[in-house]
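Bug report

Summary: structure tokens for Peptide deformylase differ between web form and batch submission.
Environment: batch mode, default settings.
Steps: 1) Submit the sequence below via batch. 2) Compare with the web form result.

Sequence submitted:
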Amino acid sequence: MKIHAEDIILDSNPLIRRHSEKVSLPLSDEDRGILQALLDYVHRSQDEETAEKEGIQPAVGIAAIQIGIPKQLIAVVVPEEDGVKEAALANPKIISESVQNSYLQNGEGCLSVPDEHEGHVFRHARVTVRGYDLIQDQEVKIRASGYFAIALQHEIDHLSGKLFYDRIDPKDPWKSDPEAEVI
């Protein structure tokens, strides 16, 4: 399975708001294939030459619901100074979170959201996520902070039909939190 730009559903499609179902473990061949395709898409999207050739948008993450499959499957790949942090998770669940917030200074974007939605999207600065990771081929606990934590939370939100702009304060989109970590 290979994901193409036209496979991504947009926020105008009501399916994007659907809650995703847990998948059975061990992963079926079908679910394993979907999860691998999600991970491959993110990797391809981050290669400038490939992204341009295939007409795909750069991404740090994608959830299965974004290709119309309501299953709890996500892939996140975040290039950082000290290497790449990545996960291809089935049934990801946030099991602990910091009180401190964080947000991306310029706001968030999404493959499924073609229109710009300006504002700060407050998320937890640190999270611990549990799930089955295809890359490590085992159940894992991931302690994440910074951009990786934001990307994981963004994709996990998709599993309950939530989009990033649902978290922007409509009365004060650019409000700040002096305690928050700004990324």
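Above is the batch result. After comparison, the two runs are identical; trailing whitespace caused the diff. The two ends are 34 Å apart (CA to CA). Strands lie at 61-63, 73-80, 83-97, 101-103, 123-124, 126-133, 138-145, 181-182.
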